[in-house]
Amino acid sequence: MKILVLNSGSATLKTNLYEIAAAPPEDPPAAIWEGLIEWEGNWAAIRTSGPAGVRTQTRIQISSRKQVTEQLLSDLWTGAAPLLKGPSAIGVVGHRIVHGGAEFSQPTVVTPHLKDVVRRMSEFAPLHNPFGLEGIEIIEEILSGVPQVAVFDTAFHTKISETASTYAGPYEWRARGICRYGFHGINHEYCAHRVARMLGRDLDSLRIVTCHLGNGCSLAAVREGRSVDTTMGFTPLEGLMMGTRAGSIDPGILIYLMRQDHLTADQLDELLNKKSGLAGISGISNDMREIVSAMKAGNPRAKLAFDIFIHRLTSFIGSMVAVLGGVDALVFTAGIGENSAEVRAAACASLEFLGVNLDTAKNSRVAQDCDISTADSRVRILMIRAQEDWAIARACWSLTRAGGPSS
User: Are residues 141 and 287 in the same domain?
Assistant: First the structure.
């Protein structure tokens, strides 16, 4: 079965094609084709990577997003190294949808009702859901009749208890949908299963803290394969310090800024989501590699940004461990988690009292999906590559083979 996976955002559209035969392999395979669109005002940059190293790159003027997406996908059947005879060769299309609210706790076949819910939840995720919905509707036109599946970043966290998901505001907030949803669930769930496979353990026996550290950052506490707590909440703004997002702050600061500086809601949104975090503190970049480089060169603001990031990270890891009542495995994943030996080392150094002992040599030369803890470490420390697209492809295969729910 050929499975196309779309991750539609405001600035990019990423897509991968996978092929699954009798059953999905246990270890994640590489996509057989990759495509990327970068939206640049009235222009779009299109890149593809196919078999045998065949790559294409072009830049075109945008008449519509549908037209650009259609040109990207046509590379699959009319490009320099076509993989498919035509659009009908695609068996199913999977979409990453950021917010499914409380209603969707599993991958779900796209229906008019699902689209209505995604549209309604756009109020809570205005930077994400509208583009996911747009991707679904574009595929409906380009690949008419091909089944589509929505896989939700919030789904993994829908079993979190009312105690952990309720804000200590007026009780009536819950009736309005104001509660903690959590995000990055696709990768948190994938990593939890991957831990069990790597350690040869039953997932139900493990207490795991997964650290998804990218431009957006969140932790999840996983017990018996289920998310029991997480750091992001009503929006992806809560929790850890991130690339350009502030993470959790005293809400009184916002009241102060509204009163003293007369900031509007839109200005506060811009401030907290785009002008804070690593970029806001360092004044350099939201890229941890540039922060570390500047810190090593003696830049004090870069060092401060790094130190705050580590302080917040270890503080939240501690809270996740407390919720779990202990920890068996600590996972680092996503851009920073996978690529910054400095972040992993600094975080683990603060957690030695928990039995977290990092192997310095292993940490400095990590390979894909590896155990970087010492032999005597009571907690296994794992670096796991984020595989959201593959997780979506697996979900699509399982759902369509099972004739799964159409909601």
Answer: no
The whole-model pTM stands at 0.92
280 and 154 inside one domain: no
pLDDT at 101: 86
CATH number for the domain spanning 54: value is 3.30.420.40
Inside any domain, residue 349: yes
pLDDT in tens, 339-390: 999 999 999 999 999 999 999 999 998 878 999 999 999 999 999 999 999 9
Asked if residue 97 and residue 215 are part of one domain, the reply reads no
Task: Enumerate residues 6+ apart whose C-beta is below 8 A from 171.
Answer: none
Q: Are residues 222 and 106 in the same domain?
A: no
> Annotated catalytic sites, by residue?
153
Residue numbers of the domain that contains 230: 200-383
Report d(CA 149, CA 294) in Å as an integer. 43
